[in-house]
Amino acid sequence: MELTDQEITRRDNLAKIRALGVDPFPAATFPVTHLASEILALVEEDSEGKVTNLQDVTLAGRIMSQRIMGKAAFANLQDSSGRIQLYVSRDDIAPGENKSLYNDLFKKYLDLGDFIGVKGFVFKTRTGEISVHVKEFTFLGKSLRPLPSPKKDEAGNVHDEFKDPELRYRMRYVDLTVNPKVKEVFRKRSKLITAMRQFLDDLDLMEVETPVLQAIHGGASARPFKTHHNTLDVPMYLRIANELYLKRLIIGGFDGVYEFAKIFRNEGMDRTHNPEFTMVEFYVAYKDYNWMMDTCEQLLEHSVRAINGQAQTTVEVDGKTIDFKGPYRRLTMADAIREYTGEDISEADETELRAIAGRLDVHVDKTMGRGKLIDELFGERVEAQLIQPTFITDYPVEMSPLTKKHRSKEGLVERFELIVNGKELANAYSELNDPIDQRARFEEQLQLAQRGDDEAMAMDEDFLRALEYGMPPTAGIGIGIDRLVMLLTGQKSIQEVLFFPQMKPER
Q: What is the pTM of this model?
């Protein structure tokens, strides 16, 4: 392991700290009373500008800058909420004859990025900056690598910023430290999930957990990750969906269930796709896709208000204002293709669809059946044009092997997708509960697999057996959490809303 000069210096400082009898990695609890942002927000002053409250505070965090002035020093401390200035005097933190706590530890061996704890009182400097006058100082953790340190040249240009995306995603721990605004994206993500969970709980749905390792990769059309169970000596798959297990619970007698689930699909990576992603799926007995559209509108409006404030249902994305207040536009897939391309696919067979694809310059291949062809036409020529929340409804039966056939439109199913800013955000059905029809749909998927479609669904005999015991009419939906967070935080890349996105191995 080759060390830089700075890393060698930090290790030397580590040894010197130990030589002073100070543990550089103490295990003791440090009782924090305030965060930096709380101190800045709570300060009260008298008529002379003196701080009248918060006389005693205890806080902890990283040292991000130091300015030593002999027997006193200023430093910036950063905690999870932000930064605050510290004023440190030698005679305060090292009273008596032994001044090594200040002269050696604080002045010489303390490096930027080290963790410390301080106790003191809040005051205002002559320049008007709220600061903490430190009375006690505790060393809490040594940083053996230097943090990136941006610098400005004489022309005002900034150098050495930690902005390279690959480095930021690979070393998120550094990104969060030196680019603290990144934390706000993840705070909003957490707040979103909390708001959605509250909404679903208020619907009296039960949160559940289903298997990540599955013997059959069912519930969606996607390529799975394959692994092996050594004890059972059988192949297993990371789930591409949790749908079939949630339906088993409806069959078992629960009226409504939901799960925030990690899903794994062995597919491409780009700005809107990561092989590991998060979805919330919920299923409610005795409901259909019309009820689910209404509920989806209410859920998303509730969630956006929870993040942005109760009065605001809009977000700004790429210079566009997107409004999540319902009702949303509802458009059948055939009508959407007709409106945006001028082509009528409602009665077209596979041959005619290939001809339409040729006219629209949409690439298709021989493995695609009628459903995949229609999906490709919609994805290439329509989806990107749907900016405001839009429900695309009534899909061809070939595209939806788990969906109930439309009650009045031959050849279609009761399904919708919610499209926002040109991307799918949610997918929902009136769930297929006829086991004979479901078996036939699975068999059609097997035929597609034989034609070379590696995303075709597998036959799931246990799920068919469960359906044969009877499932009530049910509505189900899956909502992509990562894409929703992207929209609500104005991020253009899914990697920006994942703490640890998938990366190529580091060389």
A: 0.90
